[in-house]
Amino acid sequence: xxxxxxxxxxxxxxxxxxxxxxxxxxxxxxxxxxxxxxQIFVGILALYLIQLMVTAADMTILRALFGSISxxxxxxxxxLFQPEIRRLLLLLGQNPLIRRFMQSPAQxxxxxxxxxxxxxxxxxxxxxxxxxxxxxxxxxxxxTGAQLHAQVSRDLLVTIFYAQNPxxxxxxxxxxxxxxxxxxxxxxxxxxxxxxxxxxxxxxAVGLTEVSDAFVLVVSEETGQISxxxxxxxxxxxxxxxxxxxxxxxxxxxxxxxxxxxxxxx
Length: 266
Prior knowledge:
- By secondary structure, the chain is α+β, with helices and mostly antiparallel strands.
- Helices cover about 50% and strands about 15% of the residues.
- It folds into 2 domains: about 10-95, no CATH class; about 105-250, YojJ-like (1.
- It has helices at about 10-30, 35-55, 60-70, 75-80, 80-95, 95-100, 105-125, 140, 155-160, 200-210, 240-250, and strands spanning about 130, 145-150, 170-175, 180-185, 215-220, 225-230, 235.
């Protein structure tokens, strides 16, 4: 009698599933490491092992008790691990592939218009300062400039910052996918750690992000170098290839923040 070895067929989908599960478990471990969630997870695992032993031993009363607990087990896990679940969802939402999949064609078009304008401004060495409003309202800064309420377009942005245009000084502020105003006055950062060679545009960009959560693009008039500012930090020498991702990351999930009051400019 010939014995045929038992072979488990493995499909490509199975390998993908194993990889996905391993990735999710690894991310969960990273999120829970060093937190009380690890102890809670160990406790839940211990209860599950006890339930297996109770079921195997056919202990009727304990099995009924664990059965009643299992009915609310999923809800209990969601409540206990709510911070970690929220962080995991936030991590997934910040993934570039997921953001690119979820963004609408209109948003993609607007970002392309902005990137195209910044590319042209950089090549021509035309100084520019472009502000994106996020959750912190910038109405007090918008009111310092010339109201436009125009759709975002490449040609309009380039025209605004053209040296002969009376609106080229100051910042353009974009809210809800529209150019709200140009020639806006922004607060100047007094951070002594900034490079002493930075001009007013860069210091204004950092200054605004020190008092709000705005995201700011800067184009140097002297070098054409592109910089971004957020959370009081300045990222210099940004490439055109990376600019799209920076804008998408900063404005995720949409161009529609909830407006609220902002500090009065000085």
